[in-house]
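P.,

For your records, the input lines for the assembly:
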Amino acid sequence: MVEEARKPHIEVENLEIHYGTVPAVRGVSFSVQPGEQLTLLGPSGCGKTTTLRAIAGLEQPSAGEIRIGGAAVYSSAQHVNIPAEKRGLSMVFQSYAIWPHMTVFENVAYGLRVRRESKEAIVVKVDRALDMVQMRPYRDRGASQLSGGQQQRVALARAFVFQPQVLLFDEPLSNLDAKLRGDMRIELRELQHRLGVTSVYVTHDLEEALAMSDRIVVMRDGLIAQVGSPGDIYNTPRNAFVADFVGSANLISGKHRTDLDADGLIALETPSGAILYGMAHGRPAGATLTMSVRTVHLHLSLQKPNASRNVWPVRIERTVFQGDFTQTHVAWGDQRLVVRAAGIEPLAEGQQAFMTVDPGRVVLLEE
Amino acid sequence: MTLTRWRSPQALAGALVALVAGLLVLYPVAYLLQAALNTGDPEARPPTQYGFDNFASLLAYPQIILNTLTVSFAATAMALVLGFAMAWIITRTNVPGRRFFEQMMIVPYYLTPLLGALAWSLLGTPESGFLNQVYRALGGHDYLIDINSAAGIAWVMALFEGSVAFVMIGAVMKSMDPALEEASQVMGASRLRTMLKITLPLVLPGVLGAAVFCFAEMLGSFAAALVLGLPSRFYVVTTAIYTLVQQYPPKITVAAAMGTSLFVVMFAMLFVYRRIITAGSYVTITGKAFRPRVNDVGRLKYVLLTICVLYLVCSVVLPLLTLLYASVQKISTAFPAASNFTTEHFYKAFTMNAATTALGNSLWLAFWTSTLGVVLMGLISWIIYRSRLPGASVIEYIVMFPQAVPRLVFAFGMMWAWLVFPIPIYGTLWLLLIAYLTVFLPLGVRTISGVMLQIDKSLEECAQMCGAGWAYRIRTVTVPLLWPGLIAAWLLLFVASIRELGASILLMGPHSKVITPSIVESWFASSTELTAALALIQTAVVAVAVSVLLAVTRRVTTHITD
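Structure tokens returned:
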């Protein structure tokens, strides 16, 4: 949990960025605590990379303010715009940006040379950084002789070797294959903890965001959709967009049956008459409601379960075996829902079954 | 603005370079327009009266307009047929030696239309042309071909300026995904149907674009019309402008109006070209080069091979041999005789003051044009494509502007502009240097930015994130990565400078002669044989530079694909 007393390391306030006349970021505010790993998550075109590049100083905002360590690096009101090279940040690029005309050593040493460190210090620091990413044996190789994963490690070493206050990551793992991406995720997280550096991470990959972040900012169309810990974002999405984008969810809409509300639960009646109980999480419940149920929280069984609420008969329409889990499409009244479960016997298509969900897993959405 | 970015060296360099480019390009154009609109006393500077009378007076030259249109249409048509045929043969059929022919296709372009016109003039003038001499010796009457006619001029223009059509159409054919045609065949369509329904519609925008582009080029082309048209008093708009300026008394204002109209028309055509290319962009939507599907044409391939060989004979082998043959004869004639053999023309070319001075001047100019040009144009490319400075796209338009203006017309504006310039550079090599730097802006910027755009932007941004300032990152990252592109640009500028005619012919003074206009002068004023020798020497210089260029660019391509 975030400590209120600590002063935020990075503060972004009402940031607006336009490409020509097209708004890319439309008023975004958030802050990053010292040592925290914050992730900007969203589909392509949501403004997450643009926001990151504005923090870096590679993109010129049109309005708002960005402060790092309390000092404004960009402020439209005060006409401040510190160039990227003077902001004391570092960044790992999506394309790795390994300079092809330099060796691994030269690549990593670049930031130290810029800072006019002594030759001996450079050798020591570069070797230590290369050790941390297990690339020491490759220090004299040319960049074109490295694989994608190796380039990624070099890019990482190059980014932290000069001990920047803040590390920015622009989808650093998106060019790696799935297996390597999984390994690198864990490595990156460990490295980030070891360095204790404040970092802002951009990704469109949900798993990556959940696995690597202390806090997630979900963005959509240049605005923030929700801010919270990975658990908050996953378990209590604020709106349909977040529920749908962050993991697969079923969205169910209907009338609010205030007469049936009980035990702190809100009752929703679907157009086909089924009653669904869910949690409001303090959100206002109007006359019509939308609730979100994760596909993995729905359970199917042939016997009727012993629950008083949220049990319905359904018909199995189709089952799709997807390896780690089986996806089942069921007809629930006139709505089709998706249920995912690991390792169960697939039910036969056309079969009647019972579906149930814990009301605590059903989340009322705003708006 | 108090944003710190505005005080950075990057912004300063940007503003300075933009100012220089703007001055180079817009200053002469302004003078051209002023002269064209001057209806008062033509000697008065600035003009006392403005109006459109000069443009109205252009209607008094219907023959020139007709000539220009005839030649341009004919040349464009020929160039398109040639370009399309060669592009199809080379990219889509299994004709033997396709690789070789593809590389040879650029040779006519490097030989220049001037050299082609000189050679074809030796071959095809009605009375003394070698081909006509042979024709009469074989019992023919009068002459076989008349190269001094509209058709003759168009033929030479098509041969030597038509390679652009080949390059453009070839690029379209290469960028077409063969799966599009294969899909049609899988659906059961015959080869012919596939050709008509799939291939043609897909390449049509490219061909149309090439047609418009070619036509604009032909409208502004100068050398062939000058060499072949002047003897028979056949004028097109460019040669008419040249004559109006050179005659006594010069008709400056009418020439200016003619030049302005020409560049307005060319500008419109290039605008249309851009529209066509963007509208038809579905062809190259992936921007990826495909391995085009090669058709097995069976026996037909020998016919196609003959076409390729004939093209090369007409555009490379025959012209070079003709010039060589003429240059080693005392008096050039179609029939060899041992008594007529001599090397005196080459000796003269290397010892004659006028020739060596002109060649020396040209080399000096070429060296400085390319050296200064690479720095200037490299900075401009960087500002346009990398700097994120506001106004970068405006700079791009200004810089690319000379492309739409024939160099002769541009030089005309420059002549006028720099005559009144407080620093007396008119009639010196400095003026030519400025002129070259201006007219070659599009060439240099396109070459350098082509390589620059291949370099991932994040390579520079990463240096910035590592804390490197502007000058440091340009020095340690941008320039080393751009190096092959800079060398290629240097050599291209060098070659272009050595063979430049349109601008030089108006701007060189008695003490600032350069080689290409001197060749033309020699052609009209002294001997044909000496001219042939001079043209060959110039070609040899260009050939050396081009071979270096090819060697370098080949290394670049292997470097990039590594």
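Two observations worth noting. Chain A is about 25% helix and 35% strand. Chain A touches chain B at residues 56-58, 60, 79-86, 88-91, 93-95, 97, 99-101, 110-111, 114-115, 144, 155, 158-159, 162, 168 (CB under 8 Å).

Regards
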